[in-house]
Design goal:
The complex is a heterodimer of chains A (384) and B (653). Chain A is mainly α and 384 residues long. Helices cover 68% and strands 6% of the residues of chain A. The two termini of chain B are 48 Å apart.
């Protein structure tokens, strides 16, 4: 291994990345765009859903009922509809996603203990947030129902309201959410996205930088020179890994500052693990470059494999603990799961090196093995 | 190393075979390159040149045969690595192997670091090479902004920076203008002599054969002939005869049964009389033309291309001339089919085409010559209405190109560099598609389809996929597609690039008939100087400017009158001869392999005088002989004249 030749390749590579505007844009703008698009696109928390109320009762209790929705951060009250036709128009124009129809005699029937149905009309074109919204509506109804029941019990039996509540609900669920106190999906998604995006872009950049030379024929400069296979591949791997590492830093800032995700752990640990991770993804890119002959092929292979691995083998869709053994074993072949573990561990759990050193060691071992594999498979004397 | 008297072999190849996925590329080639010589590989695209060079450079595995490079048998990857410190390899594609974002100097530095050239050596070599190639003033310019000639020279510097003993150059001159090409050969010769290095160079230009000490002609993976150019000529001795006649078609018809290679060319007919000395050939041709108003204008030494074509045909009869397709010569009322007036086109701050004016009457073949990047394609794109001009105007088929692009497109045919065929459609499907695109009725379409099949000699291939056709057929299919709507004007952008000489000749004959029988005006671009003579009239483009516009004959006559005719001398020390000649008033003396060539106004006198002159400089002249002027001579002369008057922008612009 001759360091001068490695530096020569790495230095040339760095200048090309810096000066080629298209490549520079691809290297630095793409991850940021993906982060913004995916974080907003994947979050299934519903907040500020616009809704309207068609109140046929116009009583004290119906206004109290409405207030409970008005105060919730999940709903955004757009006003009362005058009649059914207006309510329908609001839905058709997509100005509201939900209309609550409070029937006449709402207050009277409730006070007298008769069941009341509040019609809840949803805009059903988008199913996922609807399910979430229905959950919110139901829990507000449940709370109101329990209050009314306790209220009636207190009045009829002459008990204190607190006592009546306990009588009605002897067993209660006390929930505490660890690591993500407000159960905001964005907090979990933004850090995971760092892993997801880098699984796509990092192999892509490294693969493209080699395949581009294959396409033009500049790779023959390498084939016909005295530089060894490992020297050339290392010269390609290092600058592209630095670019990927810078990407992680940018995405880190985006996740914490823009999306407000909390970062509880040690930044130094996160940075070291990230360096290990980008070496792994860079080596995956080297592997892709061995397979692909054209830049289009390299793009397809990198992106498709990156997405498949990040979705299926990282624990994002199936948590690692719930994976069947075969899937869990396959997931070990990719650095995605370990890096998601590091990301979530440092962002949300505040884990320290004692709990994460295995992942860091895994990255280094993985990178060394993958690099050795590439250097063995790379040919300076080709078949075609 | 032994004594210098023994000719040592730098490269020896025996029985080399190589297939790509079952498709043979090289089918048993033998080769022997002596130390210190420039060895040429000449052949069309797909002949196997690149495969052979890559195998020698140790960057490609092969199926069978033996390769020895600088005394090492290349039989494993490990053995290939052992020779790499001692070789330099420049892959195919002008500037493609360089790094566009890096400057000239950074490119050189990268190659030097890759080869572990020490700092002091690098500094010294870099200065010397930059000075010799006249690139020193542009050392900070990014490679992507260099002209073709500069890219070529930079590629050469980068290949030579570690001072290899063997240099392998794959088509270094393709797409480069003739002036830069002359420069290139001189620089290569000088560098090789300084280091006593050997070079193997491939080219698709037959007329570069004289640049090599020895060469191999390759075709379809096999060697057709090898040796020095004279030796190869001796394999098919014969003479070239040029006939002036107003009745070309009749002359061709009379001569075809007697001579294998008869080709109409501009206002003349050109033929290769195999086995005859020039005087005999002239007499034989005159006898054959008895009674026709025709005169033998010239009878002399044959071109290597004639020899090559003759060797390729080897016994096989000349392909029959295509039957005359049925046609009604349409009346062409416009005076000029194409007229360009002060056409100018800027791309950002770069002027690609600079006040270009010319006109083409119906029935004329007009050739636009120039290197890659000279502006040929841009001119065509403006005239066909694809690209709006920055300035100037033009009309095509009677329509103003600025306002009537639609009307123009219905009346022209266009064959682009890449032959825009649909590879996965059959021959007939391609023709039908183009007929449908041009809105032909069903009856018209089937008429024209039959016409195009006859014209291109495509009968028997109707159901073949376009992508599976050999280059020559594919090119004729592209021509048929461009002609399916019977256009008045035909634009051809480098239609013969990479096609073998036989295919090229057949193609040109089609163009000739189209222009004469159907009165189609044809504008054709090429960077083959040898093809230029096939045109009725020629325009030379250099750096976006028109530097000449006349018939090939008139262009040559002008050079002959102002500069003289070429005299070639076989000398023992060509580089010293070159310097001696430059010092004695022949600054344009040029190197052709082991020979030097000068333009002389008094050839007979100079053939006596120059050997004496050179003897004073210690150079022995073995033989001095006359040569005929080539279009390359004309081009070089025109560009130099332009540079001297300060009108040329040169490479620095």
């Amino acid at each position: 291994m001759n360091a001068r030749r490695v530096i020569a390749v790495a230095w040339k590579e760095a200048r090309e990345i810096w000066r080629d505007r298209l490549y520079f844009g691809l290297a630095f703008a793409l991850p940021v765009i993906l982060m913004i698009v995916y974080c907003y696109g994947l979050v299934q928390d519903v907040e500020n859903a616009p809704f309207a109320i068609l109140d046929h009762d116009r009583s004290t209790l119906s206004r109290d009922y409405a207030r409970r929705f008005l105060e919730s951060r999940y709903f955004d009250f757009k006003g009362y509809a005058a009649d059914g036709r207006e309510a329908e128009r609001l839905l058709v124009d997509a100005r509201v996603r939900m209309v609550l129809v409070v029937p006449p005699g709402f207050e009277r029937d409730l006070r007298e203990g008769r069941p009341v149905a509040v019609q809840t009309i949803f805009d059903g074109t988008n199913t996922t947030p609807i399910r979430t919204l229905r959950g919110y509506v139901e829990s507000i109804h449940r709370a109101l129902g329990a209050e009314l029941r306790a209220d009636r019990l207190a009045r009829t039996r002459g008990l204190a309201p607190e006592r009546a509540e306990v009588l009605l609900q002897p067993l209660r669920v006390e929930t505490r959410y660890l690591y993500n106190r407000e159960v905001r999906a964005l907090w979990a998604i933004a850090p995971s996205m760092i892993m997801f995006i880098l699984m796509m872009t990092s192999p892509l950049l490294t693969a493209l930088s080699i395949v581009r030379e294959k396409e033009t024929g500049a790779i023959y400069n390498i084939y016909s020179a005295t530089i060894t296979r490992a020297e050339y591949l290392l010269g390609k791997l290092l600058p592209n890994s630095v670019v990927s590492f810078l990407n992680i830093l940018v995405l880190f800032v985006l996740a914490t500052q823009w999306f407000g995700a909390p970062f509880e752990g040690s930044f130094r640990l996160f940075a070291i693990a990230s360096l290990g991770f980008v070496l792994c993804t860079g080596c995956l890119g080297l592997l892709v470059s061995l397979l692909a002959k054209s830049q289009q092929a390299a793009l397809m292979i990198s992106v498709i494999c990156g997405v498949v691995v990040a979705l299926n083998f990282s624990g994002m869709t199936t948590p690692p603990q719930a994976m069947p053994p075969s899937l869990h074993a396959t997931a070990q072949l990719f650095p995605a799961m370990a890096f998601r573990n590091v990301v979530l561990g440092t962002f949300l759990k505040g884990l320290d090196a004692r709990l994460l050193w295995k992942d860091v060691a895994y990255f280094l071992l993985y990178a060394a093995l993958a690099f050795a594999l590439c250097a063995t498979l790379f040919r300076k004397r080709t078949k075609a | 190393m032994g004594a210098a008297a023994v000719v040592a072999e730098a490269v020896r190849v025996a029985g080399l075979e190589k297939s790509y996925r079952g498709r043979p590329a090289v089918r048993g080639i033998d080769l022997s390159v002596h130390e210190g010589e420039i060895y040429g590989l000449i052949g069309p695209d797909g002949a196997g040149k690149s495969t052979l060079l890559k195998a020698i450079a140790g960057v490609l595995r092969f199926d069978a045969g033996e390769i020895d490079v600088l005394g090492t048998r290349i039989d494993s990857d490990r053995a290939a690595e052992r020779i790499k410190p001692r070789i330099g390899f420049l892959p195919q594609g002008l500037g493609l192997s360089l790094y566009p974002e890096l400057s000239i100097e950074e490119n050189i530095d990268f190659f030097a670091r890759l080869r572990l050239v020490g700092k002091p050596e690098l500094a010294e070599r870099k200065e010397r090479l930059l000075a010799m190639t006249r690139l020193a003033a542009f050392r900070d310019r990014p490679m992507k902004h260099l002209s073709g000639g500069m890219k070529q020279k930079l590629g050469l510097i980068c290949t030579l920076i570690h001072e290899p003993e063997l240099v392998i150059l794959d088509e270094p001159t393709t797409g480069v203008d003739p002036v830069s090409r002359r420069d290139f050969w001189a620089i290569l010769s000088r560098l090789l002599r300084e280091r006593h290095a050997t070079a193997i160079v491939s080219t698709a230009y037959m007329d570069e054969a004289s640049r090599f000490h020895r060469l191999s002609l390759v075709y379809d993976g096999k060697e057709v002939a090898a040796g020095d150019p004279e030796r190869i000529r001796e394999k098919r001795p014969g003479s070239l005869v040029v006939i002036d006649t107003a009745r070309q078609a009749d002359a061709v018809a009379r001569l075809r049964p007697r001579f294998a290679q008869v080709d109409p060319q501009g206002a003349t007919v050109r033929l290769f009389a195999e086995g005859l000395l020039p005087a005999e050939a002239g007499a034989a041709v005159a006898a054959a033309l008895e009674g026709l108003p025709a005169t033998v204008a010239d009878a002399g030494e044959a071109d290597l291309e004639d020899v090559f074509v003759s060797l390729l045909r080897e016994g096989a009869p000349a392909p029959p001339a295509a039957p005359a397709p049925p046609h009604t010569p349409p009346a062409r009322e416009t005076r000029f089919a194409i007229e360009a007036i002060d056409l100018t086109r800027d791309f950002g701050g770069f002027r690609a085409v600079d006040h270009v004016s010319f006109s083409v009457p119906p029935g004329e073949i007009f050739g636009l010559l120039g290197a890659n990047g000279a502006g040929k394609t841009t001119v065509i794109k403006m005239l066909t209405g694809i690209l709006p001009p920055t300035g100037g105007r033009g009309q095509v088929a009677g329509h103003d190109m600025r306002h009537a692009a639609g009307a123009i497109k219905r009346r022209i045919g266009y064959v682009s560099q890449a032959f825009s065929l649909y590879q996965d459609l059959s021959v007939v499907e391609n023709l039908r598609l183009f007929a449908a695109i041009y809105g032909l009725s069903r009856a018209e379409a089937s008429d024209r389809e039959a016409w195009a099949l006859d014209l291109g000699g495509l009968r028997g291939h109707e159901r073949d996929l376009a992508g599976s056709l050999p280059m020559g057929l594919r090119q004729r299919l592209a021509l048929g597609c461009a002609l399916v709507h019977a256009p008045e004007v035909l634009f051809l952008d480098e239609p013969t690039s990479g096609v073998d000489p036989i295919g090229r000749r057949r193609f040109w004959e089609l163009l000739f008939r189209l222009s004469r029988e159907d009165r189609v005006a044809i504008l054709v671009t090429t960077h083959y100087m040898s093809e230029a003579e096939q045109c009725d009239r020629l325009a030379l483009l250099f750096a976006g400017r028109l530097v000449a516009d006349a018939t090939p004959k008139a262009l040559k006559r002008e050079v002959a009158e102002t500069e003289g005719l070429p005299v070639e001398m076989h000398v023992d020390r060509p580089l010293d001869a070159l310097e001696a000649l430059a010092a004695r008033g022949f600054p344009e003396a040029a190197l052709f392999g082991p020979h030097v060539r000068v333009l002389s106004k008094d050839p007979d006198g100079d053939m006596e005088r120059l050997p004496r002159l050179l003897a004073e400089a210690g150079v022995t002249v073995h033989l001095a002989e006359r040569r005929s002027l080539s279009m390359e001579d004309v081009f070089v002369h025109r560009v130099r004249a332009l540079e001297e008057t300060g009108g040329g922008r040169g490479e620095g612009a």
